[in-house]
From TrEMBL:
It comes from Pseudaminobacter soli. One of its GO terms (molecular function) is oxidoreductase activity. Residues 4-122 form the Gfo/Idh/MocA-like oxidoreductase N-terminal domain. This is Gfo/Idh/MocA family oxidoreductase. InterPro entries: Gfo/Idh/MocA-like_OxRdtase_N, Gfo/Idh/MocA_oxidrdct_glycsds, GFO_IDH_MocA-like_dom, NAD(P)-bd_dom_sf. The keyword Oxidoreductase applies. Residues 130-251 form the GFO/IDH/MocA-like oxidoreductase domain.
Length: 334
């Protein structure tokens, strides 16, 4: 079965990553929705998409479409996902799923009621680097995990700034854009859930309208693991990394918080250092392959909608922690 897709949002991420991944895993992109008809037509022509539409109703009522990929601004996700699910379309939605937990739960409920697959596009858990780290921890290579550190402070290029730095109503700011990825990747690698977070945010000159453009904080997990994170839009030269430290060893990963299939993972123990063997699978192709399989009744998406609710809950708790100056419990309501 060829899964036929409609894009809801003529986005950069779809153009750069998701359209290619859909096609590489046997799917077909048949339409794109943009609220700007001219932009939609141009986008369709540039990306080899047969047609463009300018309304949500047109997008989800199309009988040729089996699934939709939602990559609009965050405040639009809820209504678009619910409309798609009610129209019988499977849904892959960008993170954060919504701006409130109630909205995210409403999306999940609509998917369950309609019997469609709903997933979150958390790409980092699909990286061979993070999968190798998870496998090493599960195999006991570092003993009992005690702590972790995530360095995900990058420079947001001008063509991606826009609403991310100047629209609070769209869920702009670094926490709902990047910290949610940290939360999901930590959950995946550790096989554990965060329960509490403390944080301090910064306005370093890129963020506008009171939006934070950097944040540092610490999460506590159910097992007692504590994880430090540093996220930013303003950091040009830092590089990214992910470390997990245990009673018998450490995993040191570099250049891994990225959309590209790159990076290294070093296992450091009493026996010395070992470079873990890694593949170079495209992260989005792995996500789309799992999504297509889930539609066929074989397994589940790599990041479910419940995973997206967990990361949203963590992001919202981080926002509250930074605002209030106190530790905040993470309560996804699942």
């Amino acid at each position: 079965m060829t899964v036929k897709w409609g894009l809801i949002g003529a986005s950069t991420i779809a153009k750069e990553w998701v359209i290619g991944a859909i096609r590489a895993t046997g799917g077909e992109v048949v339409s794109v929705m943009s609220s700007n008809p001219e932009r939609g037509r141009t986008y369709a022509e540039e990306n080899g998409i047969a047609r463009s539409v300018s309304s949500l109703e047109e997008a989800v009522s199309d009988p040729d479409i089996d699934a939709v990929y939602i990559s609009t601004t965050n405040e639009l996700h809820r209504d678009q996902a619910i409309a798609a699910a009610r129209a019988g379309k499977h849904v892959l939605c960008e993170k954060p799923l919504a701006l409130t937990l109630d909205d995210a739960h409403a999306m999940a409920a609509a998917g369950r009621e309609a019997g469609v697959v709903m997933a979150t596009n958390h790409h980092l858990r699909n990286a061979d680097t993070h999968r190798a780290m998870r496998a090493a921890i599960e195999a006991g290579k570092i003993g009992r995990a005690l702590s972790a550190r995530v360095f995900h402070a990058v420079y947001l290029p001008p063509h991606l700034q826009g609403w991310r730095i100047d629209k609070p109503q769209s869920g702009g700011g670094v926490i709902l854009d990047i910290t949610v990825h940290d939360a999901d990747t930590l959950r995946f690698v550790l096989g554990d859930d965060p329960v509490e977070v403390s944080a301090m945010s910064q306005e370093g000159g890129m963020g506008k309208e009171g939006l934070e453009d950097a944040v540092m904080g610490v999460m506590r997990f159910r097992s007692g693991v504590i994880a430090q994170f540093h996220d930013g839009f303003t950091t040009k030269f830092a590089g990214t990394g992910f470390e997990v430290h245990g009673t018998e060893g450490s995993l040191i990963a570099r250049d891994v918080m990225t959309q590209r299939a790159v990076g290294t993972v070093t296992l450091r123990t009493a026996d010395g250092e070992e470079q873990l063997q890694l593949g170079n699978r495209n992260l989005y192709e792995r996500a789309l392959e799992a999504f297509h399989a889930a539609i066929a009744g074989k397994g589940q998406p790599s990041a479910t909608i419940e995973d997206g609710i967990w990361s949203l809950a963590t992001g919202l708790a981080t926002l509250e922690a930074a605002r209030s100056g106190r530790a905040v419990k993470i309560e996804p309501g699942l």
